[in-house]
Amino acid sequence: MTLHHHGTAPITQDVHQQLRDRILSHEVKPGERLVEDDLCALLSAGRTPVREALLRLQGEGLVSRSRGWVVGTGAPLAVRSIFESRMAIEGYATRLAAERAPAEALQELRQILASMDAAEAVSRSEVNRLNQIFHRRVVALSGNAYFVEQHERTQFQYWSLRLPVIFAKDQLAHSATEHHEILAALEQRDGDRAEALTREHIATTMRIVADALDER
């Protein structure tokens, strides 16, 4: 019994990560009800790990309880508020990453950007996926778990808004250039520049989204 209890932690962690990924990718839609028995079957996990994962997701603001578990909608947060949060969290996290990231992790970031640069050979959804991975990895390299958690929440809130924004080819090219500049600052261990570039990168995206919404 003791062995089973101690073995629950990694199982719960895995269930939590799987559920979080499904929510953030919209495989599980905002407002959708989550039934514990269904989740147990879907994730091949016991009731305890599933319940613990749901409680953790509730603490992160991704699900709520209303006569059962419900995926959050993110509706209360405005677009500008989301981007301002990203600027604050991701900007400072990138500064810390410049100080703390090991060389092999920066090489991994370079490989992610190389895959994104081959945009003609991959789908737009794959570019979006790689973009999210790049930003998520940079935040993780800050070494601050609270930043990682808050960044995930802003990402969730952003995608929950279902914004009808399609980035033009020149905008994507400019974004790619900014990614490379951020990575260069990380490799040079220049925290000031890494933070400034990241904040400007997010501000640029915010302007594109705001302009698109004004045209609706």
From TrEMBL:
Keywords: DNA-binding, Transcription, Transcription regulation. PROSITE patterns: HTH_GNTR. Residues 9-80 form the HTH gntR-type domain. One of its GO terms (molecular function) is DNA binding. It comes from the Bacteria. InterPro entries: GntR_C, TF_FadR/GntR_C, Tscrpt_reg_HTH_GntR, WH-like_DNA-bd_sf, WH_DNA-bd_sf. The keyword DNA-binding applies. It holds the Pfam family GntR. This is DNA-binding GntR family transcriptional regulator. It comes from Acidovorax soli.
